[in-house]
Amino acid sequence: MRDFGMIRRLVEQFLFEDSAQPFPWVAHLSPPDRAEFRAELEQLWQTASATDRWGEVREFLEDWEATAEVVRDRSRAEFLKRPPEEKEYWDDQLVPLSTVPLGSLGVVRRLRGELSGILRADVGRYRLYFRVDEAAGCINIDLVLRRPDS
Length: 150
Hints:
The chain has helices spanning about 5-15, 30-50, 55-70, 75-80, and strands at about 95, 110, 120-125, 125-135, 140-145. By secondary structure, the chain is an alpha+beta fold. The longest helix has 21 residues, at about 30-50.
């Protein structure tokens, strides 16, 4: 979504015409997450309408869409919600931050709502879900999947 005029029209259709058509993926979010999404979107819309800065709205929508994609697969969402200490990891899943700058991961998307704190990035043919543990100085990779379009 690069056309900010289109983003504005879709957001207004969702907010003021009470239509889920612009963002059908919202249906996959839990009721509390849908309420959080709508409240934040309204606030961002007000700011963007006043300043004509729609880039933050675009990023917000992309973050929530990434979350909805994960939530759609309940087993994946439940796995990612578990605390790191309850997951089984391979030894090489803790990657030092100094060896993998986040910029090298391509587009990194924050998951929102119930899955906050988890990041998603597409790297080649794979989709990584991970957390950054700054205290330990590493990336903790929760899940690696083959990208659906590969």
